[in-house]
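Fold Annotation — chain and its backbone
Next Lines — sequence and tokenised fold

***
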Amino acid sequence: MRLCAWYLYGEKHRGYALNPVANFHLQNGAMMWRINWMGDTSPRGISGSCGIMVNYRYFVEDTASNSAVYLGTKQIKASEQVLSLVSQFQQSSKL
């Protein structure tokens, strides 16, 4: 879960999220909301993401500003749950 959070939040290509699905939602103003262990147990979900599923949440009043911040400064808006997992990864990682 920590590695997944880091991959989605911290791994970048030219400053933007490396994962194309994350990049799509973030460009459209979503917030990285929650990471769910075994959220997708379909064969495709297991093979593509080890069953992990991410929820992106759109707060209508924030989508324009979230999108502008992401596109302008490349900062990702994320919930405390996601940021906590990122922090745990950073503390324990040797990368």
